[in-house]
Amino acid sequence: MTALATVTSARRPITVNRRYIAAGVFVLFGLVNIFLFGMFAHKGDATFALALPTASVHVPSIHAPARLVPIILGAISIALGILRATIDEPPWAKRLSIGLVLLFLVIGLLCWADTGSWANGIPVNVVSLLQGTLAASIPLILGALAGCMGERAGVINIAIEGQLLLGAFTAAIVASAVGVLWLGLIGGSLAGGLVGLVLALFAIRWLVDQIILGVVLNLLISGLTGYLYDRLLVPDANTYNNASTFSAIKVPGLGDIPIIGPIFFDSTLFLYITYAAIIAVQVGLFSTRWGLRVRAVGEHPTAADTVGIKVNGIRYGNLIMGGMLAGIGGAYLTIGSVGTFSKDMSSGLGYIALAAMIFGRWTPWGATGAALLFGFTEALQSFMGSITVPISPFLLGMLPYVATIIAVAGLVGRVRAPAADGKPYVRA
Amino acid sequence: MSDKASGPPAGPGPGADPDPAPVSTQPPPAAEGSEPPKGQGLNHVIIDAVTHGSPAVTTTLAILLALVVGALIIAFSDTQVLHEWSTFFSNPGAAISAAWDSIAAAYSALFEGAIFNPHTIAAAFHGGSVGAIFYPLSQTASQATPLILTGLSVALAFRAGLFNIGAASQWIGGAIVATYLGFAVSLPLVIHAIVCIIGGFAGGAALGWLVGDLKARTGAHEVIVTIMLNYVMYDFLSYLLGTPSALQLPHQSNLISPTIASSAQLPHVGGPPPQVGVGFLVALAAAGGMWWLLARSTTGFQFRTVGANPSAARTAGMSVGRTWVLAMLLAGGLAGLSGAVTIQGTFYSLNFQSYGTYGIDGITVALLGRARPLGVVLAALLFGALDAGSTVMQAATSVPVDITEVIEGLIVLFVAAPPLIRAVFRLRAARETGMEAVAKGWNG
User: Fold this and answer.
1) CA geometry: angle at A242 spanning A239 and A248, to 5°?
2) Is B242 on the interface with A (CB under 8 A)?
3) What residue ranges do the domains of chain A occupy?
4) B107: number of CA atoms within 13 Å, CB side?
5) ipTM of this model?
6) CATH topology of domain A134-385
7) Looking at beta carbons, which residues of chain A come within 8 Å of B408?
8) CA-CA to B389 of 20 to 30 Å: which in A87, A235, A248, B378?
9) In the structure, how many helices (H) and strands (E) does chain B have?
10) Mind listing the pLDDT tens digit for each residue in A317-326?
């Protein structure tokens, strides 16, 4: 109830403000596009390649005049900003315009980056950029879905980071020691589920504050995996930390479609699991009887209990299943990409997944979109690094986080979590 | 560890009954929660506290339980021990004694590194340095110093109902300003150090203010903003340390700043070599100041009221937004102070080794100290002792220092779950404990 009062009393001035904040951000991005990327662009065309260099099917590349394109796109952004400030747009138009302005900014940036002397005429490979985006997004999406599962049932899960890390650790050990990749995947998933179970026990049975609990579990898992890494994995790396990785599987038919095929249908098993998980969680939460129950438990557990839904049973189940998803995301970090475990290798991905979930307003679709955004900045950063753009990689690395702060403060503002999120249910 | 069935055999033997001694010496964090039963004498109070699991008792038992679990982890990750246990049934004695030796070696090295080393006393009698006896304790104090300050930072925010995960970023903010003022400006002796400390406070406070202001104005959740700021500041620090015109030591490819001027370095005080750094005194003064602020000032009253119930605070005419901003500003300042003191008192130059994990550890310290100044100081001393001891332990027994992270995590986990501790040690009844006071969901 305190939350409600806070929200209602503070809401009115914000909606007015946010309209102008959003418009201001649009105009600012437009100006950046025109004056930074447009005016400073070097002569010539930026090349956007639409097929991998190894592709058998030839797709013509797009050549874009590097000065004109950012200026035009910047002008459109400014126009969208003015439109946003003057008329009351329907929600879909708001979302569309945010997306367009961001897209324009990225295109402008790429035009500028690709025509510099440092690029040596290397084209911007859109396909590999998007492939990298999806790859970087896998642990984020699975982690954010784990968050959704828990929080929709009313339990805050900050331990996503720990679930990823323990999943990665277990997958590497099992896959190395047993030598079967599949078992590594299952082991990683179970490890994430175990963290979910511990979280559930402490949160539901022993009523520990859930934000504290998550932070502490992360610390604990970071310490435990770091300890075991030094004590067991380093001295005997060949036995315990020497896993192979899943190789890419091309989906017959779909994988051969130009552009779309290599991006979406030619990847490791993890990407396909991620597709399935997104659909399962989205459909499950919003179109099934089970989902209705979960959301009832997350919004009003007393009412749910009254009609016979086992509140804590649902919470246990969701935290464990969510943990298993995050564990798969963790397993991707080792047996899906590099094969070996290293200390604290999740490096904050779990916290970004958490932010993606909140950014996506506790919905699987929204969380996936936000996670893709983070994944894209990751891929963009590594592309910029590969053509040695004269901007410090550290400054580029700050971008996604600064963007999140701007987004949370300016565009999203006060989000509303499920009403019973973070509150243990004790039957009166 | 989560399973109750596996708990009792490990724990209660040494812990539950013969343990009232530490309770009587346990300082006041308990005082606020438990009211003494009327007129039944001190003895009865102590017994009552033990059987009912007062906060002091559950905290002590939680530490004990964490050390036991840590011991099991140490023993059963030792390849030698595992080898002996593989033949447990043919020679159980050897297996158990191998495990015991492994634990004893690790924990005694931990103790010698953190509290005192018996050898130094023997050496002192034979003409060695008396100061060496206190060397481990001064190491503990030195390790605890930044933890006290980041712990106070998180604790202060907690009391105002905010969760400051951003002590790490504020630490960086403070350290950057203090380091820059330390090597780029030249000032007279004492003034230079004070200017750097104030600069460090300001550096952290600016970041804290940003978080509070965004929350008050736009409703951006402080947990997200602080998490993001941690990454932003980490990258920003890497950028500054990698740019020669900014903070990088000239003609260096490593990410390291120049050494600060000797006038900006904090001296050590108090007799022969093992001394206490001035930074430790600064930290204690900050704890005292925070106690005064929370317990005696109007601002502190507002913090606590807003923390307990923002709606009530608003109804009573307090500005919730302004309180948030001020609380985050002070919290950021404390974490910034931690950065300044670490650079000026311990490392003298800024790099990623000096960065450490003070921000995240500040959260656990604040939780263990139940968000009270004295509790934070004690918790930081405990964690400082574990940190100081663990390096000695790693050198002596090759048990990785990461074990302290596990033990610290377990301590906080157990402290946060009094019902679990009561169940493990078969204590009676539930009394109100301090931890629940900070419980908040996203919407609060």
Assistant:
1) 145
2) yes
3) 13-122, 134-385
4) 18
5) 0.82
6) ABC transporter involved in vitamin B12 uptake, BtuC (1.10.3470)
7) 219, 223
8) A235
9) 21, 2
10) 999 999 999 9
